Amino acid sequence: MDARGEDDDRAGGHEHHHNKQEQEEQQQEQEHQEQEQAGQGAYVPVLYASQTGTAQDTAGHVSRTLIRHHLSSAAIAMDAFHVGRLLELPVVIFVVATSGQGEAPDNMKKTWRFLLRKSLPPDSLQHLHFAVFGLGDSSYPKFNFVGKKLFKRLLSLGATPLTPIGLADDQHPLGVDGALMPWIETLLTAIRPLFPQPLSRPPIPGDKLLPPVANVIQLSADEHATLTYQQQQQQPFERPHNEAAPSRRTPARVPIKLNQRMTPEDHFQDVRHVVFDVSSANLPYAPGDVLYVMPENTSESVDAILDWFGVDGAMLVRVQVDDEAVATSLPALPDRLSFRDLLTHYLDIQAVPKRYFFEILASFAADEMQSEKLREFTAAEGQEARYDYVNRMKRTAIEILRDFLSAKGRVPVAYAADMFGFMQPRAFSICLQSAGLNTKTFLHAGEIHTAVAIVNYRTRMATPRRGVYTNWLKTLQPDTMFVFGNRNAAADFLYGDEWRALEHRGLLTLVLAFSRDQEHKVYVQHKMREHAGAIYSAIARGAYILLAGSSGNMPKQVREAFVDIIQQEGGKTAKEAEAMVKDMERTGRYTCETWD
Ligand SMILES: Cc1cc2nc3c(=O)[nH]c(=O)nc-3n(C[C@H](O)[C@H](O)[C@H](O)COP(=O)(O)O)c2cc1C
User: Is the domain defined by 211-219+297-422 classed in CATH 3.30.70.580?
Assistant: First the structure.
């Protein structure tokens, strides 16, 4: 009886709950409809076309401005946006750069081809209101060519412009911001009649931070337990073996075959001949193509940022992006990765930071004066001050963080990706010997040759400015390191001339340990530790280790050195480092050939 009574009660409770839920849903639906009618929460995407990231950053700013005015918005790469939605949405904003000689950036090419179709009726976009902000440089003959062409094409398809086209010019003393600030004001005025309800409300103030778009979330132990073995082992930029050709989102790791300085050592400029081995990468290319390379940040800058956040680099994170189209606009990330790997391979921590960096920093600075100064940099009136402080001197994020120490340890890692943005790949012309070359037969099949000038220059800042990519590249060696140890160089350097010749040709990094050539004994494991950074970086990139020599203590000591190096350089625990080496042994990436 009792039990049934309870059941009945529960059933009654359910019924009651059900009614209440229905009422709430109805109410929500009604509110939603009212909001829709007034434009509240209406979706206004900001589509960008960007070759080197400036238009992407600008689109982020425009989209955040719309969100602050109670619209729903996201910055999306044009080709990541389903073009069919242009036929449904009432308002779309475009932010497009011009690249090449008046060419469209790669991430709008697909959409642009669609919009240029002759078969599109002239009234296809009759329902659409749009605005275009172009980014360009008036020192090019085809100034803002792509923005202007897009504007005209949208007009010819029947769409209605909200504002005249905005034209940013790199030559403006304030860069893009020179044209952006007034253009946004015009846009907000023009958009108001379309969405009267949200735009008549006071905007979300600048000192209230919006939720992160690319949210860096620390993995809980439970979440970690649900990962498959493959997910746990996934390395940055790892690709399934049978994947299609590499792309901007999913680049391929390829070995470097040669990295040789072409200019004399005492010459002011270090220009290198760099050869990439792309034979395994399914990377078709033809003369005139450009090679895009993702750089790595230096371990010093990664350490500085880790220290600044006050977190352990081994912390496992995932990056959550709720909007699918936004996620497709960003580099494809592993399902989980260490915070150190995120900083090393993906986030633009060595760059001159953009405006949003200051907005985030301002929200967390403890010192009132510092926070005020940072806010000034983000306001329309403060653009000149920010330009003076940041861009003129090419101050890097790390230098700026040192100036605003009261925010140290206070910014949640959740904002790390939004704060620094994602690194952009660097483009290089491909140079090949042209004799006898046609598009079908290459003289250097499976290789891509580039000539790279290393970027180092001084501003009034104490430390010289260094190009992130070219200086990283300079440190890269062909992916073979040969560590050789014996008693003394004069008698025991077997095949020494040949090893030296390979080293001279840039095909090998040679590390030598002659135990008796000095007072104290120096063995291979000591020398390995001196090259810990390069060794770990090679392991992280999938290196194979082949160990050969006497079967005494050496194999054990060398193995210990590898575990230590992985632990120290990879920010891993001893257990994780040990597991990594075990896994390499299991999968044939660590093999030993030893003898008595
Ligand atoms: C290789 C290259 C070619 C460019 N060609 C043009 C051009 O033809 N016309 C123009 O107005 N701007 C040109 N620009 C300037 C860019 O449009 C401008 O720097 C813009 O801010 C870059 O935006 P993004 O970083 O989003 O690609 C060029 C810039 C580069 C680096």
Answer: no
Q: What is the pLDDT of residues 60-96, one digit of tens each?
A: 999 999 999 999 999 999 999 999 999 999 999 999 9
pLDDT given at position 10: 37
The protein residue with its alpha carbon nearest to ligand 1, atom 1, reads 100
Task: Kindly report the CATH number that applies to the domain delimited by 46-200.
Answer: 3.40.50.360
Q: Is the CB of 51 under 6 A from ligand 1?
A: yes
Distance CA 43, CA 583 (A): 48
Model confidence at 234, pLDDT cuts 50, 70, 90, reads confident
pLDDT reported for residue 381: 85
Domain boundary assignment for the chain: 46-200, 211-219+297-422, 248-295+424-471, 477-595
Rounded mean pLDDT, 94-108: 93
Q: CB under 8 Å to 388, separation ≥6 — which residues?
A: none
Is 144 a pocket residue for ligand 1 (Cβ < 6 Å)? yes
Class at the top of the CATH hierarchy for domain 477-595: alpha beta
CA 330 to centroid of ligand 1, rounded, Å: 20
The topology under which CATH files domain 248-295+424-471 is Elongation Factor Tu (Ef-tu); domain 3 (2.40.30)
Ligand 1 proximity of 137 Cβ (cutoff 6 Å): yes
Residue 580 in 3-state DSSP?
A: helix
Residue 409 has pLDDT above 90, yes or no: yes
Cα separation, 463 vs 4, in Å, equals 80
Pocket lining: 134 vs ligand 1, CB cutoff 6 Å? no
Residue 444, pLDDT > 60, answer no
